[in-house]
């Protein structure tokens, strides 16, 4: 008895849980948090209701006809088959509706494209598969990578609340200020999209696009790359934190300080030698974050697309070539230049790791100074 | 030997010079044989492309990676698109054109029968090349069916060369098919079959054929530039060499937008044939239908950049493309209004072809509404590259183009086979397809509005329930099509004998020849009333 009762109870509960879960997803476009995004939302709703109204009339007449004008009711078919008047009428009415619709759409579009008089400018650069942000008025720039652990993606760990929509370093912008975004790309076309701002703009390699936003509400806003950009297109999210101008100032100064300090430390590091254990552990971490997407965690690459490092002649024999390709990338391929993405220490460590992992037992250590030498030697 | 056998038939009224067995199909220049081959080929491709859709939906059933790797997922979305567009929808329409156009205009065959054979027989090789590329190291093309540069040039695998070659062959096939349609319609109409007496299916195909010969060379140019950028050091789409990646999109969509009308204009012709038959009332506004189709074709050359609003274009450009795109709603609306007016005060019956045609009118119109929404540039910034777009083009392509092809198959099957299809089974096929296709594609509107990008193998948790639902709809829709295959096999093998007219309200030359249509029809031109 208790068993059936609990079953009877649990079924509706399950269904309810499922629907409750489903309501987590908004069923409509977001209104967003900017004036522009609200205008866009209203355009969307206006055209939606216009479509609903036209649909109700057309489908209404059609279904009325289907119900009434069926042979089974014994009706005789009429034989009329043209009317110029009617044709003109149902050409003219849609044209008028469209003109009415085009006016607000034009206004909003013109406002969206006006990127003048910005208070803050951020250069947004897409690359496979991460975003880079550079504040043009400050000495602050950094990469923003997916923070969701691999184990969640391959279903080993439970997925977190912001699964695939979390990054290691979010973009921070001040509230109440006009923020201009300059978009470009280092490799393929990406598209920077934050729904709450109604900003979606392609990042084209070799060209710069513009967009802007003014966010009034402090908060955290999430988006994703919207243009297919290769294998891990689904794994390059965007997180923007809007802070009050004062908080933004202190954050941006803190960042500038942190970056300057890291640079100074790097110079000191040149004189120091790191041991194998330290290089390998830093190297593995760096490899997982930056290299494994293409060359795979096991170093075997993807045949035909991304070359293997395990057993490769470069990783076993050609150390200067190895340092060079990591620093400068390889033109005409997906291999990026990491000189500006990673510190000298990280580059030294990752090369050491690649020369000593997966059976590549060269036993060779690469130090930050070695990397620095290749970097300097390039100019000579 | 078979030649000797057929020589005996020479004195008979219908002298069928055809070799027996497989040679008949290799050597045939008969429009009906070639039409049948196109249709069977399209059906096979529909199932191969459909199988890829099932892989996509299986992976998207739950968040996280379950069955395939992201790289393979991208190959599935890419090849699914290519196969459905170039392998299923376009050949199916060409098959229908081959079968029906000569019979509708009172011609003995297509004007260029040997080219007709050739344009079909290169197709299987094109798709063989495309499918084989999936087994190369690194897999097949994975840059989306739109193959945007530089993803398809610098950053693609070596399967790109095979992809380019196969698209070239598909293009040559389409161009030859289109030339054949144009030459046939211009030269082989029976005396008295004036332009404004031609059935709308003939009209819409004539306009489609012109679109094809205008834009398929543009596609050929685009793939060739991709090939030379990748292998021969040119820089059409590479800024480092003075090129522009956005140029690729302009060229691609200058082909791509007329291409979507290539896939829908013949559908308009089919529905314009079916609705009057089952309403037992002449098509309302025949002339306005012809003008509307022509306007849509002309406008299709002026709207390509509405696929590219986010690429960064001048405001004036965005406004021009927005206005032109909105204008397309006008002639398209005229068509829908004319169909409804045709039904009005008719005496309708609801056999399977009519059911699919009615579903087409409603669901294609829904796809048209979302198309109108997408035209509004500021709103498009939110819709672009999300599942809202996926919902939109599947409504116009699946419940639009594919439903019309299915409707056409039911409508003309008795004429092709000489047997009535199983009406009850057909109704099952219709209702299963109708319900499942909406379970599949309708929720995609919501998922897209909520912010899920397209072409991703994995997604945020908020989209999980809807995606599970969509996947179930997808599996059901796939399974429903098996009913169709069963029905086709049954109908080809036997069934109630069909009369010449088949449908009570059917009018036109194709209904004046016996069912099944003899191997050769209209060897002497018919008299047009």
From TrEMBL, chain B:
EC number per UniProt: 7.1.1.9
Cellular compartment(s): Cell membrane; Membrane
UniProt keyword terms in alphabetical order: Cell membrane, Copper, Electron transport, Heme, Iron, Membrane, Metal-binding, Oxidoreductase, Respiratory chain, Translocase, Transmembrane, Transmembrane helix, Transport
Pathway of action: Energy metabolism; oxidative phosphorylation
One annotated Gene Ontology cellular component of this protein: respiratory chain complex IV
Domain Cytochrome oxidase subunit I profile stretches: 25-529
Domain of life: Bacteria
SUPFAM superfamilies noted in UniProt: Cytochrome c oxidase subunit I-like (SSF81442)
MF-aspect GO terms: cytochrome-c oxidase activity; heme binding; metal ion binding; oxidoreductase activity
Family: Belongs to the heme-copper respiratory oxidase family.
Name recorded for this polypeptide: Cytochrome c oxidase subunit 1
Source organism (scientific name): Rheinheimera lutimaris
């Amino acid at each position: 008895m208790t068993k059936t009762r609990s079953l009877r109870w649990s079924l509706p509960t399950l269904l309810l849980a499922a629907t409750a879960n489903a309501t987590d997803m908004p069923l409509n476009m977001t209104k967003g948090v900017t004036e522009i995004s609200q205008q866009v939302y209203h355009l969307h709703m206006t055209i939606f209701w216009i479509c609903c109204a036209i649909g109700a009339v057309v489908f209404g007449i059609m279904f009325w006809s289907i119900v009434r004008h069926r042979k089974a009711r014994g009706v005789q078919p009429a034989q009329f088959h043209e009317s110029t008047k009617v044709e003109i009428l149902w050409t003219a009415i849609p044209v008028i509706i469209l003109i009415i619709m085009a006016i607000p759409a034009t206004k909003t579009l013109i406002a969206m494209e006006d990127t003048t008089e910005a208070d803050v400018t951020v250069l947004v650069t897409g690359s496979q598969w991460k975003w880079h942000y550079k504040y043009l008025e400050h000495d602050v720039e950094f990469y923003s990578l997916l923070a969701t652990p691999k184990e969640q993606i391959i279903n080993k760990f439970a997925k977190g609340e912001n699964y695939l929509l979390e990054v290691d370093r979010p973009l921070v912008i001040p509230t109440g200020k006009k923020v201009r975004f300059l978009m470009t790309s280092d490799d393929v076309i990406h598209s920077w999209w934050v729904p709450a701002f109604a900003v979606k703009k392609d990042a084209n390699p070799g060209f710069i696009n513009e967009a802007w936003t003014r966010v009034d509400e402090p908060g955290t806003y999430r988006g994703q790359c919207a243009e297919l950009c290769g294998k891990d297109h689904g794994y390059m999210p965007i997180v923007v934190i809007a802070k009050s101008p004062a908080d933004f100032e202190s954050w941006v100064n803190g960042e500038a300080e942190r970056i300057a300090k890291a640079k100074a430390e790097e110079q000191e590091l040149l004189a120091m030698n790191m041991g194998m254990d330290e290089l390998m552990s830093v190297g593995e971490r760096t490899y997982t974050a930056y290299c494994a997407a293409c060359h795979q965690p096991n170093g075997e690459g993807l045949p035909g697309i991304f070359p293997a490092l395990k057993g490769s002649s470069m990783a076993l024999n050609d150390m200067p070539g190895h340092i060079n390709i990591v620093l400068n990338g390889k033109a005409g391929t997906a291999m990026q230049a990491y000189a500006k993405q990673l510190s000298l220490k990280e580059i030294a460590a990752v090369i050491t790791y690649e020369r000593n992992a997966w059976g590549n037992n060269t036993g060779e250590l690469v130090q930050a100074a070695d990397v620095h030498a290749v970097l300097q030697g390039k100019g000579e | 030997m078979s030649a000797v056998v057929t020589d005996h038939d020479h004195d008979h009224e219908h002298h069928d010079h055809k070799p027996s067995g497989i040679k008949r199909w290799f050597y045939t220049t008969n429009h009906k044989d070639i039409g049948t081959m196109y249709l069977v080929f399209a059906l096979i491709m529909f199932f191969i492309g459909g199988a890829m859709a099932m892989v996509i939906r299986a992976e998207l059933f739950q968040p996280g990676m379950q069955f395939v790797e992201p790289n393979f997922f991208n190959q599935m979305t890419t090849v699914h698109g290519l196969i459905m567009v170039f392998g299923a929808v376009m050949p199916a329409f060409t098959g229908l054109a081959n079968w029906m156009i000569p019979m509708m205009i009172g011609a003995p065959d297509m004007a260029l029968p040997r080219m007709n054979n050739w344009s079909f027989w290169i197709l299987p090789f094109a798709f063989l090349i495309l499918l084989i590329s999936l087994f190369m190291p690194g897999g097949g093309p994975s840059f989306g069916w739109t193959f945007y540069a530089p993803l398809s040039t610098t950053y693609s695998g070596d399967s790109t060369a095979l992809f380019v070659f196969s698209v070239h062959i598909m293009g040559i096939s389409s161009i030859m098919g289109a030339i054949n349609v144009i030459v046939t319609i211009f030269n082989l109409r029976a005396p008295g079959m004036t332009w404004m007496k031609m059935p709308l299916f003939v009209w819409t195909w004539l306009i489609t054929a012109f679109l094809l010969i205008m834009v398929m060379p543009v596609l050929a140019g685009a793939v060739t530039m991709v090939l030379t950028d990748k292998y021969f050091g040119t820089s059409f789409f590479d800024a480092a060499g003075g090129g522009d990646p956005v140029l690729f999109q302009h060229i691609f969509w200058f082909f791509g937008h007329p291409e979507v009308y290539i896939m829908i204009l013949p559908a308009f012709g089919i529905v314009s044939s079916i609705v009057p038959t089952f309403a037992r009332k002449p098509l309302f506004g025949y002339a306005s239908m012809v003008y509307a189709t022509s306007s849509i074709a002309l406008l299709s050359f002026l709207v390509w950049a509405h696929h590219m609003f986010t690429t960064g274009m001048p405001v004036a450009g965005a406004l021009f493309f927005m206005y032109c795109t909105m204008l397309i709603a006008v002639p398209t609306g005229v068509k829908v209004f004319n169909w409804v007016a045709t039904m009005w005060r008719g005496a309708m019956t609801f056999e399977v072809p009519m059911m699919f045609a009615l579903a087409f009118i409603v669901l294609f119109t829904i796809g048209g509404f979302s198309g109108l929404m997408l035209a509004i540039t500021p709103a498009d910034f939110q819709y672009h590259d999300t599942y809202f777009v996926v919902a939109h083009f599947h409504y116009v392509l699946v419940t639009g183009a594919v439903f019309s092809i299915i409707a056409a198959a039911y409508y003309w099957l008795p004429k092709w086979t000489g047997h009535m299809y199983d009406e009850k089974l057909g109704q099952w096929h219709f209702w299963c397809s109708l319900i499942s296709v909406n379970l599949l594609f309708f929720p995609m509107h919501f998922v897209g509005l909520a912010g899920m990008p397209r072409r991703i193998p994995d997604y945020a948790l908020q989209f999980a329930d809807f995606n599970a639902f969509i996947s179930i709809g997808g599996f059901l829709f796939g399974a429903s099509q098996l009913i169709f295959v069963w029905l086709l096999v049954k109908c080809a093998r036997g069934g109630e004998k069909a009369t010449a007219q088949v449908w009570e309200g059917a009018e036109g030359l194709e209904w004046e020849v016996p069912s099944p249509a003899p191997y050769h029809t209209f060897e002497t031109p018919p008299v047009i009333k």
